[in-house]
């Protein structure tokens, strides 16, 4: 029996998440598909890593001082991570979030003691966008720093220094491909850069939801969005600082329906309750695995990110009325 790790600091609980072999996706891909269980972080998402590195970076640069405030614009998970890290370090938190995100995320942020500012969803070019609103609030708040997760490369550094080495070590250096979606771009760019530092032949694939522009950018060089997605926290219409120089070798576009199929299967068949971003990532990993197998590679292994827990979406993905309103298939057990 493997004993649980013992940590002397609660922030050391961030990272070192398990990697699990996914049976259904592996069978569908014809190779091993592994999921990095980021829902095992204290804030139940991959964004805890970015939050920790961003706050430590601000402290190291002398911008964040005792009693200060961290302000951020987020779809929710980064805000939750920031609130937890800030609490542990003695800072206040102000989170700006679009008002169309899940109620569970809003309730969680309030429960953690963050000041929550809700704004209508709008295009990034609009000054009222949640990112720009958070920047202005940081500028107007004494002793505050703006986390700026989209363009603060401490975000991707978290994945270069932690996520990528963990995956490499957990798979004992035998990995052929990695894929995930992009929100800020920190995870795909950071893990990609980190893994290619170990082996430049590892194929890094972007898995993009409909409604985002990155699939088109990496396929044709043009930022062009097609369709829509209800997935929270992923999908991007610009090249953020975190995405600059990202080693993307190939790309897949995945529908909400395809992502939801894997959300349903992983819950019913393997006991994993996940959000839609994880389902989209798994669908992309299956496609990447198929691609590598079709090229004649043997004993293929691909990995992806299981971003967060499905318990964060009980009022949306796991609500039959909400799914019907979005013209999405309802999980059979929800009736």
From TrEMBL:
GO terms for molecular function: transferase activity, transferring alkyl or aryl (other than methyl) groups. SUPFAM superfamilies: Tryptophan synthase beta subunit-like PLP-dependent enzymes (SSF53686). Pathway: Amino-acid biosynthesis. It holds the Pfam family PALP. Keywords: Amino-acid biosynthesis, Pyridoxal phosphate, Transferase, Transit peptide. The keyword Amino-acid biosynthesis applies. CDD domains: CBS_like. GO terms for biological process: cysteine biosynthetic process from serine. InterPro entries: Cys_Synth/Cystath_Beta-Synth, P-phosphate_BS, TrpB-like_PALP, TrpB-like_PALP_sf. Its cofactor is pyridoxal 5'-phosphate. The keyword Amino-acid biosynthesis applies. Residues 12-308 form the Tryptophan synthase beta chain-like PALP domain. This is Cysteine synthase A. It comes from Novosphingobium ginsenosidimutans.
């Amino acid at each position: 029996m493997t004993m649980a790790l013992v940590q002397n600091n609660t922030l050391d609980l961030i990272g070192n998440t398990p990697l699990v072999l996914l049976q259904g996706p592996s069978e569908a891909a014809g190779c091993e598909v592994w999921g990095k269980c980021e829902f095992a972080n204290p804030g139940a998402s991959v964004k805890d890593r970015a939050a920790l590195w961003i706050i430590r970076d601000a402290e190291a640069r002398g911008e964040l001082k005792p009693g200060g405030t961290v302000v951020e614009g987020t779809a929710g998970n980064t805000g939750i991570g920031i609130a937890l890290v800030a609490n542990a370090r003695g800072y206040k938190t102000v989170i700006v979030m679009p008002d169309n995100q899940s109620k569970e995320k809003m309730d969680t942020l309030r429960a953690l003691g963050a000041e929550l500012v809700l704004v209508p969803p709008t295009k990034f070019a609009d000054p009222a966008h949640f990112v720009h609103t958070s920047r202005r609030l940081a500028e107007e708040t004494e002793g505050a720093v703006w986390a700026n997760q989209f363009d603060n490369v401490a975000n991707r550094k978290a994945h270069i220094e932690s996520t990528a080495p963990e995956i490499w070590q957990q798979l004992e250096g035998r990995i052929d491909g990695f894929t995930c979606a992009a929100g800020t771009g920190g995870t795909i760019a950071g893990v990609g850069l980190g893994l290619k530092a170990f082996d430049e032949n590892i194929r890094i694939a972007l898995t993009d939801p409909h409604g985002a522009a990155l699939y088109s950018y990496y396929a044709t060089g043009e930022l062009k969005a097609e369709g829509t997605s209800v997935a929270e926290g992923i999908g991007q219409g610009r090249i953020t600082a975190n995405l600059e120089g990202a080693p993307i070798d190939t790309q897949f576009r995945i529908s909400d329906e395809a992502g939801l199929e894997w959300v349903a299967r992983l819950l019913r068949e393997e006991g994993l309750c996940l959000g839609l971003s994880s389902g989209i990532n798994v669908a992309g990993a299956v496609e990447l695995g198929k691609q590598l197998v079709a090229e004649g590679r043997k004993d293929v292994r691909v990995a992806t990110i299981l971003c967060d827990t499905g318990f964060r979406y009980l009022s949306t993905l796991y609500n039959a009325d909400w799914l019907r309103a979005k013209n999405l298939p309802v999980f059979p057990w929800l009736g």
